[in-house]
Write a structure and sequence with these properties.
The chain has 371 residues and is an alpha+beta fold. Helix content is 37%, strand content 27%. Strands 1, 2, 10, 11, 12, 13 and 14 form a seven-stranded antiparallel sheet that branches. Strands 4, 5, 6 and 7 form a four-stranded antiparallel sheet that branches. Helix 2 packs antiparallel against helix 6, helix 8 packs across helix 11 and helix 9 runs antiparallel to helix 10. The longest helix has 26 residues. The chain is globular, with a radius of gyration of 24 Å.
Length: 371
């Protein structure tokens, strides 16, 4: 962990307890003529990576130590008889550290309860209690043994005048990191994807998500016509897998509103030595074939009549794991939206699920409803 944060105490005074998740790129378009390409996405990620200067360090757990400074948790490591410069933790790195050291076999129930309370309640502001929590975690770290873990370190811009090193993730040594940049480079190795338009590209501190347009088209998109997409994702620092999925993209009104349905996800863990591009190539034909099947099924669903669409939708979603009553009610409302297909058809249920899924903020929540 590099030294050099010369005004750390001053900077820490302006930081929260842990650094929150932060958005990055947030791009979407309905104009294919001017859309991003995978090459332009790659170039943007390359500039971002250059600014962040990410590095990794392998260190034993028992050589880590926490500092509580001006309301902020900072992490440092023992180097001989001294400590490295302490740096702030991202909320996800803090949670990963928690999972490494706060376990039933390494701590008492009381210490786990205290540390978990400090971790889960980001609004808790009692300094003395937080210091006690840090003492508990340090005790657990000191007795964690020489188990090696990997620190993922990068630059983060705090304001116009301040850039700090921070811990963005903490993973096991079995974790094989795949940067967002290298993930997109691997997609460019797949001939069927290399020249496709990108209609959506989003990143935050935890993940990348992008959508490429797989059907050839000229000029304006047709209203309510389903077009095939390839949806891809990656997590750089232990927060999510990488993979790809088949999707359908539909323009539902003249002002550019779209819906997207995603199915048949192929998910790969960050382990092993097989190049990601090779894994994606191995399933791409299945993804494209699934997209074609989805197109045909949706066209048939437009004329597939259902006596009571609300009841059918509720019965279907109620049998799915992780679907809440709130999502069922949201889907019911979305089925009556002007952009959804005719009520009383199977396509109307599909449109309602898809439209409501797009209103869910978290990627995980959207995926649960759309799967």
């Amino acid at each position: 962990m590099p030294n050099g944060n010369t005004q750390l105490t001053t900077i820490a005074a302006n930081l929260p307890f842990v650094l929150p998740n932060r958005g990055g790129f947030n791009y979407s378009t309905k104009e294919l003529d001017n859309a991003f390409t995978l090459e332009s996405v790659r170039d943007r990620l390359a500039r971002q990576q250059k600014a962040m200067m990410p590095i990794t360090r392998t260190v034993d757990l028992n050589r880590l130590n926490l500092v509580y400074d001006n309301g902020t948790i900072l992490l440092r490591r023992r180097v001989g008889e001294k400590f490295s410069t302490p740096v702030p933790l991202h909320i996800n790195a803090w949670r990963q550290l928690y999972n490494f050291v706060v376990t039933p076999t390494t701590s008492t129930q009381s210490s786990r309860s205290l540390v978990e309370f400090l971790l889960r309640d980001s609004t808790f502001a009692d300094a003395s209690a937080r210091k006690l929590g840090v003492m508990n975690v340090n005790f657990l770290l000191q007795n964690a043994g020489d188990k090696p873990i990997v620190l993922h370190v990068a630059n983060r811009k705090i304001d116009e005048n301040s850039v700090v090193k921070y811990i963005r993730g903490i993973t096991s040594t079995n974790y094989v990191q795949l940067s967002n940049l290298d993930y997109v480079k691997s997609l460019l190795e797949v001939p069927e994807l290399a020249n496709r338009k990108v209609v959506m590209f989003k990143t935050d501190d935890k993940r990348l998500y992008l959508r490429t347009f797989m059907d050839s088209t000229e000029g304006k998109l047709e209203l309510n016509k389903p077009y095939r997409t390839f949806d891809g994702w990656n997590g750089e620092t232990g927060h999510r897998s990488y993979g790809g999925a088949a999707g359908l993209y539909r323009l539902v009104c003249e002002n550019g509103m779209t819906t997207n349905t995603v199915k048949d996800r192929y998910t790969f863990a960050h382990v092993g030595s097989t190049p990601p591009g090779q894994k994606i190539r191995g399933v791409l034909n299945n993804i494209l074939e699934r997209g074609s099947v989805m197109q045909k099924r949706y066209e048939k669903a437009l004329t597939h009549d259902i006596d009571n669409a609300f009841d059918e939708m509720e019965a279907f979603l109620s049998g799915e794991t992780g679907i809440s009553y709130k999502s069922i009610e949201g889907t019911r409302i979305a089925m009556l939206d002007d952009t959804s297909s005719k009520y009383g058809t199977l396509a109307n249920i599909v449109d309602g699920i898809t439209l409501h899924a797009q209103s869910i903020e978290s990627v995980e929540g959207r995926e649960t409803l759309e799967r």
